[in-house]
Each structure stands twice: as C-alpha cells, then as structure tokens.
Design a protein that fits this description.
With 320 residues, the protein is an alpha/beta fold. It has helices spanning 44-61, 101-109, 118-129, 187-190, 193-206, 214-219, 225-233, 237-261, 270-274, 280-290, 293-298, 310-317, and strands spanning 2-8, 12-19, 30-37, 69-76, 80-81, 86-87, 113-117, 138-141, 149-153, 156-158, 179-180, 183-184, 265-268, 300-303. Strands 3-2-1-4-7 form a 5-stranded mixed sheet, sandwiched between helices. The longest helix is centred in the last third of the chain and has 25 residues, at 237-261. The chain starts with a strand and ends with a helix. The mean pLDDT is 91.
Length: 320
Amino acid sequence: MYSLGIDIGGTKCAVTLGKDYIPDDPHELVTAKKKFPTKSERGYKAVIDDLLSAADELLAENGVKNDELIGIGISCGGPLNSKKGVIMCPPNLPDWDNVPIVDIFSKHFGVKAVLQNDANACALAEWKFGAGKGLENVVFLTFGTGMGAGLILNGKLYCGKNDLAGEVGHIRLATDGPEGYGKRGSFEGFCSGSGIVELAKILIASHKRGKPYTVLREQGNDMTAKSIALAAKAGDLVAQDVYCVSAMRLGQALSILIDVLNPEAIIIGSIYTRDQALFDDIIKEVIKKEALPAAAEACKILPSELCEFVGDIAALSLLF
C-alpha cells in the first residue's frame, strides 16, 4: 500500500508517492516524486490538471494502482477550510477562490483525501520526523514564498476556529515597508522571498548613487532572495542591509511568538535554513532585548532539520 502527497505552492508544485508506514529514516518515506513550476497565472484549473496528470504518471511509472492508495494528503497555503476540503483565496495563488480540492482528488482516485495548510503540514513533518521530534510545543515558520506558521501546542496541531491559526505573516511590524499578505510593513513583507526582493528595491532606491552595490545592481529584475543573499556574502553593502533589516524584523516577530506561546522551539525553514548565518547574530540580539527572559531561555531557534526535504513529506505527514 502507498500514500500520495500533493504540495501546492506559489512557486512550485510537487507530487510525492510514499509508503503507508513511518520508517526509521524519514527520507525512506518517499518512494518517488515529481516537481514542476506552478505558473499560477494560467488559473487553478490548469494547475490542477497538471497535478492530476503528474500523479497519474507517478503511479503508472511505479506500478501502483489507485486501490493500493491508503489516501491522499494535500498541503497548500491558506486561507483554506480543512474540514470542507476547500482552498480559499491564498494570496500567493491568484484565482484559487473556493476550490474544492479534496473532492477533485478523492473522486479522481477513488480514495479519501485530506487538506491542510502548508505551514501546518510542514509543522507536522518537522514534529514527527525532524527538529521538533519529541517536543510538545513547537512553532514552524515557512519563510519561503510567503510567511506562515504551523503550531504544535501541548502535543497537538492547533488550527483555530476556522483554520486561520498561524497566519503570522499578516502581523504588522512597521507602519510602512515591503508588502506581504496584502499589508505593507507586515511580517511576510519583511520575511519572505518576494518581500526580501521588494525590500532590496526599496533600499537600492534610497541609497546615494556613490554607495557600492555593483553585484546587486547588475541583477536588475532577476533578483531573488537567494541571489541577494549571495550578493551579501560577496560584500554587496545594500544586500547586507537587506538581510540586516529582514533579520531585525524576524527577531521582533520571534519575540512576539515567544512571549505569546512560550514554545520549546521555533523551527524556521527555507530562506533561514539556507542562509542562517545572515540572521542569527541579529535575531539573538533582538530577542534578548524584546522577549521575556525566562520564555526566551526556554525556546530554541532552530533551522529545519528536514531542510528542502520538508515539502516532500509535509503532505504525506497528514496521513499518519
């Protein structure tokens, strides 16, 4: 028997074929996978068609029949309704308004399907298999295309009244700044892939012509959070400023989470995991100033242990 995972992201989508049991090594959970760019501008129907086709191909290539599936786990950015299995207008997926994704997949494959916020799914993956294993109170921050949180509180996934718990990207950290989640100066604006690019453009425009930022300037419209990080490491002063600002705002948001939730660990994925050295000194300094000392001492700030692999098993984690 097998499990099928569907990961729908603003940048890329993935379909994963997994086992129906939890192995000792989480990497062994995945049997095969397919990834492709989302290209959401085509509309949700085209993306769903691609997902269904990729899943059909994955099963056929591995000799798996539909009746050998125990279920399908679907992870996607919120807002969504996990009980009804409906995706509801995520900011990074234009046109995805009230999409009955669970019905579509369960009817196509003839098995049960479950839907969960991608941050919640990643939190479950890190809690069951990664840096949060054995802990009771864990926060997982996506820090990728967007910024969302998955909350494991008292040993259970906490979703809130209508699946909106953990939408920390909407928290306003400043009166102005890069826009994220439809709000300028938001946590997502300062700490997300698109937000970091916008922040770089704002800082480039504000700097005097004479200040050296040749590496970053040459990137033009091809800038990404990753390329800006590489520029910062290469000595680009504006790129370094970008990550200093992002790290400072990340520290502020972490302090809020520490004070409100008193977690044992906050696990941060994607951009932080990849470029931890650009953040750590600053966020430690901010947390020391902003958070309650006892709560801060009890909380570890950790990179994702599953790293880039977390998205591959996040949707599968919903079935265990």
